[in-house]
Amino acid sequence: MDHSNISLTLEVWRQESASANGKFVTYKVDDVSPEMSFLEMFDVLNERLIREGQDPIAFDHDCREGICGSCSMHINGRPHGPWHATTVCQLHMRAFKNGDTIVVEPWRAKSFPVIKDLMVDRSAFDRIIQAGGYVSVNTGNVNGVDANAIPVEKDKADTAFAAATCIGCGACVAACKNSSAMLFMSAKVSHLALLPQGAPERKDRVLNMVAQMDKEGFGSCTFTGACEAVCPKEISITNISRLNKEYLNAGMTVDKR
Length: 257
Ligand code: SF4
Ligand code: FES
What we know:
Elements: E1 6-14, E2 23-32, H1 38-51, E3 74-75, E4 78-79, E5 101-105, E6 114-116, E7 119-120, H2 123-132, H3 154-164, H4 171-175, H5 182-193, H6 202-215, H7 226-230, H8 238-253
Parallel strand pairs: 1-5
Antiparallel strand pairs: 1-2, 3-4, 3-5, 6-7
Helix pairs in contact: 2-6, 3-5, 5-6, 5-8, 6-8
Residues 69, 166-172, 183-184, 187, 231-233, 235 line the site of iron/sulfur cluster (SF4).
């Protein structure tokens, strides 16, 4: 593999605030190491912009380890960029060739309004999680109960764990032609619905979360699978079937507990 440094042209969406009009601004970046992460490349560009007295590009990031879900942006039209099952912070510049032009945009969805440049407000996801409420699990020696002592079948534990790996990045919404949040929702509902610890509040949880999702203005799911294709955690759309089953069951039986 060629490890030479590369030169790139970036077309970056700049937008001062939610109410301002945005536009693409072109930046030339030289001497980019293929071993840099995409965000490190942005760090170097931002240091240059600050030195030149320009406003640095605003983008979200936190862990830079693929676990917090905050580094959300479209790269060349694809949420999180060209690598499968990889967040932007884990994308490295060896994914690009010398002379490439890279187009970088924020998530586009009514429920994720732009805050500035590449940063969007994903607090709609937080409100959906909050609507799900608490999980009542007795723990500790006072009651003589240890939550982890409840037997769980291996296949259910594995499926619940896979659903729990959703990092709430919002790529599923950004990729969906309907801006649907169903893949995210289905991961959150599935992870608790599959476990005995999640059973007591199971019906209220799914009804309240779906009601909040609708209130936030996310679109409906037409099961085209664009969400699954771009999900950095490979959350399966089979979880959406489980969510629909949980929702229907709760709706039909919630008053008969
Ligand atoms: S389901 Fe995947 S794409 Fe959607 S929020 Fe969770 S990790 Fe991100
Ligand atoms: S910065 Fe946390 S997942 Fe990318």
